[in-house]
Amino acid sequence: MANKRLNLTEIKPADSFAGFCMYIGPTIVGLIQNGTVYQGSKQQVIASPELAPVVAKYPLAADLLVDGEKLAEARAKLKRRDNLLSGKYARLVKLAAGKYGRID
């Protein structure tokens, strides 16, 4: 088996790769579920017909939509509870619970 040398022209720049995003915020029943993966960049996903109404109603949800390459770091921040991202998560939980009475 021959080793293939990596040709640098085969590597696409980060901005030409659509990638994916994941919602790491709380599940808001009937609107959005934690762990949902969306194809495309964060800006594309926020503007999509699926998420635009959610972001209009809960702007904090956009901050909890994380690009794939930043996913591990963002999940670690949520566990620490001493940073801006975990604060936004907690505020979204309170906002959604006030409107819907129940979130998961």
Structural description of this entry:
There is one protein chain. The chain is mostly helical and 104 residues long. Helices cover 41% and strands 10% of the residues. It has a three-stranded antiparallel sheet with strand order 2-1-3. It is globular.
Top keywords for this entry?
single chain, 104 residues, mainly alpha, 3-stranded antiparallel beta sheet, 41% helix, 10% strand, globular
Short description:
By secondary structure, this protein is mostly helical. The chain has helices at 42-47, 52-57, 60-63, 71-80, 84-100, and strands at residues 20-23, 37-39, 65-67.
User: Strand order across the biggest sheet?
Assistant: 2-1-3
User: What integer value in Å does the Rg equal?
Assistant: 17 Å
Number of strands: 3
Looking at the structure, what is the overall shape?
A: globular
**Biggest sheet architecture:** 3 strands, antiparallel
Helix content: 40-55%
Structural class by sheet pairing and helices = mainly alpha
- Please write the string of helix (H) and strand (E) elements: EEHHHEHH
Give average pLDDT, whole number.
83
Helix segment tally: 5
Residue stretches low in confidence (pLDDT < 50, at least 5 long) are 6-11
N-to-C span: 51 Å
Strand content: 5-15%
